[in-house]
Amino acid sequence: MITVTIDPAVAEHVRLGLIEARHVIVRPASEALRAEIAALSAALRETHAGRELAQIEGLQPGRDLYKRMGIDPTRLRPSAEALLRRVLRGEEVPAVNALVDVGTLCSLDFLLPVGLHDLDAVRGALVLRRGRPIEMYEAIGKVYHSVEGRLVLADETGPCGSPTADSLRTMITPTTERCLMVIYAPSSLTPEQMTEYAQVATARMQRHSGGTLVGTAVIPS
Question: Which residues neighbour 74 within 8 Å (Cβ) at sequence distance 6 or greater?
Answer without folding.
Answer: 54
